[in-house]
Every structure is written in structure tokens, then in C-alpha cells.
Design a protein that fits this description.
four-stranded antiparallel sheet; 15 strands; about 10% strand; six-stranded mixed sheet; about 750 residues
């Protein structure tokens, strides 16, 4: 069965609404019967990044019926569903169902794809250091109808069905759990949501919790629910009025000059009795005009009088400083009161919750008392010579008594906040435990309400263990059957000889042998090219030996760039194998073949073959046009790599726009290859390490033109963006160099230029 057309292709990487959806793409007109027929052979050429591998992986997902492959290919910039419809020659539409994540209507098509994913999925070389076996799945017709395979498939299907039923039950229970948790979040909070891992569920939780006990816990939980967001309150240090401060304040308020004089005399007058008497009377009666009361002479400059004045001034300043400290001490109560006021507001919501009594605080009483005390202190500060009278001192004592009463209220509020801190901190811890209890009970309630489903899931889990054991035994016998069949090993060894790897042989135990010795990667390392050849040989073998005639009638083969890392001379062998594989599988009505490549040599070999010049062979080219993917039917060209590179250079030169897209960074290497080909042509003895200006002289280039070309050859053609310190993509330089080369060819090789200009 052949692919007739691709009707729809949306949201698949670069293949989003591509030219693949041209309904006539894979058809040709047969003049003999005047009918449109599907191409049996399809050769598609395209550079990297034009969607070849994406196309092969799309078909690989049909082969594997694996939605995961499509998920990797889906466009990341689109939220729409994947939409693919492939029409077969009998009119069947093969398409992808997004709801079931399955391909449908694939009964009429058998797809076999060779690409990078195929290599990873079928042959495991990563473990080659531990085992010398190739982990491929070899299967002959004899094996295909064997009891061992039948048992293997039945046990595998039973195990798969068990897992499928488990998955369906887990999805149902997950939905029930999500709905259940939505109700829990509404009734309690999000932290109480249950979390059941159905993959690890191995028993039914036993309910031992008393519903009444749970209701009590629930009530406590509701009372303390706000504790989750509770933050500790700052409580200032509130104490009663310091008795020392109180006594000191009164002492300062009672201070007079007489006491200063007495202090001074006690300090200074330590001389004769006569002097002490004189000084005592003299200081007492010193007149305001600073004259001696006895002789009426000036006392200015008198040593004792000057000492007294200095002592007096320092004493007053000392007392002023002390009074101001007392004043600040009382003011501090107002600041504390303001802090407590804010604290009282913050704790108010928790007072009712904890069933405590609110404490009222008159807003102005404390300030009034403190301000009255400060007024008395200020009176003294205004007149340090005279003492505060007895009435003011009585008022002060009264104010201090009232202030202490207010301070007691502050202390109670402060203590209440401290108690709330402790209780709410304890409530937080209780909440954690309560949530745990609620979760456990809710899990039991959930399981109880979904008991039948949970029981079914547990039974499936138990039976899975037995089914897995049966599967392992059947798999073991099936693999032995595979190993006993040597027709496949003969086929793969024939292919290895065909590709020139006859030094390698795979024995009937599927050991890889080199020169008749079993080899291991511990002592022997296969090259990337050798691994590719062995893998491709295995792929071709499975096509020849692993399909029934009915499957061959429905077969579509897809080969994506099979010659990566392959030696130049072996590409011819690969091309021959590709040409022969259809007839080797089935001569009459051979399967449809798609070959995708960016290798110019492989492409040219196939194009020039009579096999590909047949009317039932379609040759196509993938290319990008303004970021859109296009495909066109290609003429049977014989272009070399040199010609293809030169075409790209001339195409950029002819583009009216100066913008050179970043993807054209590959042109740097194209320029290098083209110029070196010209240099070898003009000077066969040219050495890449030598300084040769033949090309400059032959094409009559200016120094500036030649220097630009030389710069690209020796700098940008080697450049890697992440390693280079220089600008690695210079649009203007790249454009100018393409123009210079285009003009060179046009001037000296006009026919070559005209050929490259043909579309």
C-alpha cells in the first residue's frame, strides 16, 4: 500500500502546512492507462533544517503508534492540536486522534523507518563495554508463527492490558481526588488536602478514628486556623517608676543656692578658724554690687570669691543636666504608651479568639500626667536658684501616683501580648498536628467512598506481579527461539560483506566477531561509520526476512540520511543497496520507498541511476522560502558539491536585499570550498599552507576584494560563535564577498555562471 498524498499537516515542527500537503506531490500520470499512480520511489534532497528528519519521525510514530514521538515534534509556539491526515492509494485516510493519542486507520499500511531514533530504539551499543551482543530483534517467518512468539505476545498483551486498566483506574481516582481536595480546600484549607500516590498504594487504610473525636479536633482547628498567618508581636520593656529617679528628681527640685554655699564651704574652708568665720559671714552678706559688706571694697579678683562662682556655675549645670535626664526618663513613658497603643490594636482580634478580657487605655491620661511632671521640672530649669515650693512637690507626688496606675495598665496589655504570643505559637504547632490528623481521616474517608475502585486497583497490582513473571518466562523462550534461527544472521552477514565489512561476522548467538574472535568494546572500539553500517545492515535484514507477503504488500520504507559518517567509497555501496532493496523484498508490486538526504554524492549517484530515471520515481528538493518550507520536483541534475556551493553564493549575490539571514552562516565554508577549487584549478601545485595569489591575478581582483576573500577563508570559515572573540557573522562582509565571487565567475566563466543562474 502506497502513500498517495498528505492532505493535512499542522503543528509538526517545520512541516507545519508545508508543500508536502500538495495533493499531486507523490503522483504521476500513467499514459498507458490514463490514470494517476503513486510514485514507487521518492528521493527527497534537502539541507539540514528543512524538515527531513521531522518527516521521517512522523512516519516512525505511525510504525510505533507512539504519541510520545509526535509530542517531541509538536511546535512549541502553538497550543493547537496536531492535525495530520495521510491518504493512501486506496483512499484510506490515516490520521492522528488527539483525544485518544493514537493513529487510526493504519490497518492498510506497514511503515518501516531507518533514522537516528531507529538506531537508538533497536540496537544498543551503549552497553558494548559490558556485553559483546547486539541487542536487536531478529525475527524470521518461522519465529513469527511459533508457539514461543504467540506465548510472548499473549503474555505481553495481558501485561499491557493490566497496566492499561491500572492507568485508567488511577486516572479516575486522580479525578475523584482532585474534586475531593477542592471540597477540602473550601471547608478547611489547602494545607489539609490529601495526597495519595496510587502507584505506591498497596493496602486499604483502616479507620480507627472516632468521628466525635474528629469533630472536636475540627472545632479546635477552626478556632486556631488564623494562627497560620500569625506573626509574633514586639513587646517593649515596661517597668514601674524607678524610686531612685523619683528621689533624685525631688532632690533637684528642692535645690537652693544656700545648699551650694554650704557645700562649697565644706569643700574649701579648711584654713584657720578666723578665715572660716569671715568667709562664712562674707559669703552670706556679699552684696549684689560685688562689694565687701565690711569695708565696701570691690571683691573682683578675690580668689575665694572667684572659686565660689566657678563652683556655683558647675553645680547649676550639673543639676540642669540631671534634671533633663529625669525629664527624658518621664517622656519615655509617653513613647512606650504609643507603642502599647498600637500593640493593643494588633492583639485585639486574638483576644476574642482566645476568650480574654480586653484592657482599655485612656488615650490622654498618661500624657497629661507626664506633661504635668515635665511642667514642674521646666519651672525649676527656668530658675535654678530657687527651690520648688511644697505645694508643687505635693502635686508631683500625686502625678507620680497616677502615672504608676497608668503604667500598670500598660504592663497588663504588654503581658497580654506576651501571653498571646505564647498561645498562638502553641496554636501553630497544634495546627500542624491537626492538619495531619485531618489528612489521615480524609484519606480514609476518600478510600471508603471509592472502595470498589481502590480494591480493583490493588487486585490489578497483585496480578501484575504474576503477569510480569509469566511475561519474563515467555520473553526468555522467545529470545531463545530467535537465537535458534540462523537465517537472519546469514542475511545480515551477507549485507556486511556487501558493504565491505566482511571482517565482521555475527554468529548464531548474535555475538559480534572480528577476524573469527568475539570482540568487546573494552579492547576494541568500532568507528561511528562501522556502527552505522552494522545498523543499516540490520535494518535491511529485517525488511527481507521479518515480514510476511501480506505485510510486504502494505509496506512503506523510509530511509533518512543513512550515510552519515560513512567513508566516501562506501556511499556507492549504500546507494546500490537502496536501489536493490525493493526488488529484494518483493519483485512484483515492490513496496513504496522514501529516501531523504542532504548528501550530494548519494543524491547524484541515485539520480543518475536508471533505477531512478523510471517514470514511477519522483525526485524532489526541500528548501526554505522566507522561513516557509517548500518542495519542488527536481530535474535530474548532476551537480557536484562545488556547483551546489557556487549556486548558493550567486543566489545571495543576486538577492536585492542586503540582509543575510543567520542560517546562511554556512556560506562561509561554501566560499572557502569554491575558492580553493579555483586555486587548485589555476595552480595544481597549490598548497593550503602557502601564500598563493594566483586567484587574485587571474580574476583581476583589487587588493580590497582579495583581502575580504582571504579574511573569510582564514577566519570566518573556521569560526564557531561560542569560541571566537571576533564577530562571527558579518552580513555586509558576507554579502560583498558573494558579489565579488559572482562577478569573478561571470567575467571568466560565463557559461558556468549562466548554468548556476538557472532555477
Amino acid at each position: 500500500m502506497k502513500i498517495k498524498s498528505i492532505k493535512k499537516m499542522k503543528n509538526i515542527g517545520l512541516l507545519n502546512e508545508t508543500a508536502y500537503t500538495n495533493c499531486e506531490l507523490f503522483l504521476y500520470h500513467n499514459k498507458n492507462d490514463n490514470q494517476s499512480k503513486c510514485y514507487s520511489k521518492n528521493l527527497i534532497k534537502g539541507n539540514n533544517g528543512t524538515g527531513k528528519t521531522t518527516f521521517s519521525n512522523l512516519l516512525y510514530s505511525i510504525e510505533k503508534n507512539d504519541s510520545g514521538i509526535l509530542d517531541r515534534l509538536k511546535r512549541i509556539d502553538s497550543s493547537d492540536d496536531i492535525n495530520i491526515e495521510i491518504e493512501l492509494e486506496d483512499g484510506t485516510i490515516v490520521k492522528y486522534d488527539n483525544s485518544t493519542k493514537q493513529w487510526i486507520n493504519t490497518e492498510n499500511i506497514i511503515v518501516r523507518v531507518f533514522n537516528e531514533d531507529y538506531i537508538k530504539d533497536n540496537i544498543n551499543f551503549e552497553e558494548f563495554d559490558k556485553t559483546n551482543k547486539i541487542n536487536g530483534k531478529y525475527e524470521t517467518q518461522e519465529v513469527k508463527i511459533s508457539i514461543e512468539k504467540n506465548n510472548f505476545e499473549n503474555s505481553k498483551n495481558a501485561l499491557d492490558e493490566n497496566k492499561k486498566q491500572q492507568q485508567a483506574l488511577k486516572q479516575e481516582l486522580e479525578k475523584e481526588k482532585n474534586d475531593f481536595n477542592t471540597r477540602i480546600s473550601t471547608e478547611y484549607d489547602a494545607y489539609c488536602k490529601i495526597d495519595i500516590n496510587f502507584d505506591k498504594l498497596d493496602n486499604i487504610p483502616k479507620s480507627e478514628e472516632n468521628e466525635k473525636d474528629f469533630d472536636n479536633k475540627l472545632q479546635i482547628f477552626k478556632n486556631y486556623k488564623s494562627a497560620e498567618n500569625f506573626k509574633m508581636f514586639f513587646t517593649p520593656n515596661i517597668t514601674e517608676i524607678d524610686e531612685k529617679i523619683k528621689t533624685r528628681t525631688i532632690e533637684l527640685l528642692e535645690y537652693t543656692e544656700d545648699s551650694t554655699k554650704i557645700s562649697f564651704m565644706n569643700e574649701i574652708l579648711k584654713e584657720s578658724e578666723q578665715k572660716r568665720v569671715w568667709i562664712d559671714k562674707g559669703l552670706t552678706y556679699v552684696e549684689e554690687d560685688n562689694l565687701c559688706p565690711f569695708c565696701k571694697t570691690s571683691l573682683d579678683g578675690n580668689t575665694i570669691i572667684e572659686k565660689y562662682k566657678t563652683y556655683k556655675d558647675s553645680k547649676i549645670k550639673e543639676n540642669e543636666l540631671a534634671l533633663n535626664k529625669c525629664k527624658d526618663y518621664f517622656k519615655q513613658f509617653i513613647e512606650n504608651k504609643n507603642v502599647i497603643n498600637e500593640l493593643n490594636i494588633k492583639i485585639n482580634p486574638y483576644i476574642s479568639m482566645l476568650k480574654e478580657t480586653a484592657i482599655s487605655l485612656e488615650s490622654n491620661e498618661l500624657e497629661d500626667r507626664v506633661n504635668s511632671i515635665i511642667e514642674i521640672i521646666d519651672k525649676k530649669l527656668n530658675d535654678m536658684q530657687n527651690a520648688i515650693d511644697i505645694e508643687e512637690l505635693k502635686k508631683l507626688d500625686s502625678y507620680l501616683t497616677d502615672l504608676n496606675i497608668e503604667i500598670e495598665k500598660l504592663k497588663k496589655i504588654n503581658q497580654q501580648a506576651t501571653d498571646i504570643n505564647k498561645k498562638m505559637s502553641s496554636a501553630k504547632k497544634q495546627l500542624t498536628e491537626l492538619r495531619k490528623d485531618i489528612k489521615e481521616l480524609k484519606i480514609k474517608q476518600f478510600v471508603s467512598s471509592n472502595l470498589e475502585k481502590v480494591n480493583n486497583l490493588l487486585n490489578l497490582k497483585k496480578s501484575e506481579t504474576l503477569l510480569f513473571q509469566q511475561f519474563r518466562e515467555a520473553d526468555k523462550l522467545y529470545k531463545k527461539k530467535l537465537l535458534d534461527s540462523d537465517i537472519v544472521t546469514k542475511e545480515i552477514n551477507d549485507w556486511l560483506k556487501f558493504f565491505g565489512l566482511d571482517k565482521y561476522v555475527i554468529d548464531n548467538k548474535f555475538n559480534l566477531n572480528y577476524a573469527n574472535n568475539v570482540i568487546s568494546n573494552k579492547t576494541f572500539i568500532l568507528s561511528t561509520g562501522e556502527l552505522s553500517i552494522i545498523t543499516f545492515a540490520y535494518f535491511l535484514t529485517t525488511l527481507v526476512t521479518g515480514l510476511t507477503d501480506d505485510e510486504k504488500d502494505r509496506l512503506v520504507i523510509v530511509i533518512d540520511d543513512p550515510v552519515n559518517s560513512i567513508d566516501y567509497n562506501k556511499i556507492y555501496s549504500f546507494a546500490t543497496a537502496i536501489k536493490n532493496i525493493q526488488s529484494k523484498i518483493k519483485k512484483n508490486n515492490p513496496p513504496q520507498l522514501f529516501v531523504l538526504t542532504h548528501n550530494i554524492l548519494l543524491y547524484n549517484i541515485l539520480v543518475q541511476s536508471n533505477f531512478w530515471k523510471n517514470k514511477n520515481a519522483g525526485i524532489f528538493e526541500l528548501y526554505k522560502d522566507n522561513n516557509s518550507l517548500r518542495i519542488k520536483k527536481d530535474i535530474h541534475t548532476k551537480d557536484t558539491i562545488f556547483i551546489n556551493y557556487l549556486k548558493k553564493i550567486i543566489n545571495i549575490a543576486q538577492n536585492e536585499s542586503n540582509d543575510v539571514e543567520i542560517e546562511n552562516v554556512v556560506i562561509y565554508n561554501c566560499i572557502r570550498t569554491v575558492l580553493e577549487n579555483f586555486k587548485y584549478l589555476l595552480n595544481p601545485e597549490y598548497s593550503e599552507t602557502g601564500d598563493d595569489e594566483t586567484i587574485k591575478e587571474f580574476f583581476e581582483l583589487t587588493d580590497e576584494e582579495y583581502l575580504k576573500l582571504d579574511y573569510i577563508i582564514n577566519h570566518n570559515s573556521h569560526n564557531e560563535p561560542e569560541l571566537s572573540c571576533e564577530p562571527w557573522f558579518d552580513e555586509e562582509l558576507l554579502k560583498n564577498c558573494c558579489v565579488v565571487i559572482s562577478d569573478m565567475v561571470k567575467k571568466k566563466y560565463s557559461k558556468l555562471y549562466d548554468y548556476c543562474m538557472k532555477k
